Amino acid sequence: MKTLSVESSLLWTGHLRLNASYYEATAGRAEELLRATGFPLARLGDAGVTDRVFNPPRFKRIYVNDEAHGVPYLTGAEMLTGRPEKRSFISRALTPNLDEYVVHESWVLITDSGTIGRSLYASRDFEGFAVTNNVIRVVAGGVPSGYLYAWVSSPPGQALITRDTYGSVIDHIEPHHVRNVPVPLVDRNVQRVVHDKVQRAAALRAESNRLFDEAERELLKALGTTPEEWSGRESDG
Question: What is the pTM of this model?
């Protein structure tokens, strides 16, 4: 068991949260770090930082057999592998507001249920995939997307994202929690350098995925089968 003392004034800055984990030392250290740097701070949901931070509503998944009638769909666990595969498809015709579930290159994706706060930077091979509603989408605006990803996936960024966890059985966070996470606005040149490195890493990962797919297809071809014959539907996560 860990214990700590906090000033009563923090209750008002913590949305009157009475769970001790909200005031846990790691998030406090992250806030102290941000104050000590002297850099300007913004909130992740501020208009000058992002265009949108959201997750779509829960929906009934109606699966179809192929891409001709559906959109490739990823669970949270499948998304986090970083290697999107077209194994399951949800109906184009029978999924209301389907575009709300489709993600795009350079979006920052954050899990909001179960193992919360795990983040992924969508490389080009995620373009056009539908992703579970249990993932918060961060669409960059005035601050480069790669920089935002580097921040939310860093140890202090993770501490600040997960501090708002709630739920007695399954942990959750909501988009408004993520919108409220402070972001240090370092020099624009540094933001660009960080963004470019993340973009480069994403491009290399996409190329790696392509080569893995080719290797798998060649192996299965030699065995007289194809990846499509082994695709299956998995429950959402």
Answer: 0.85
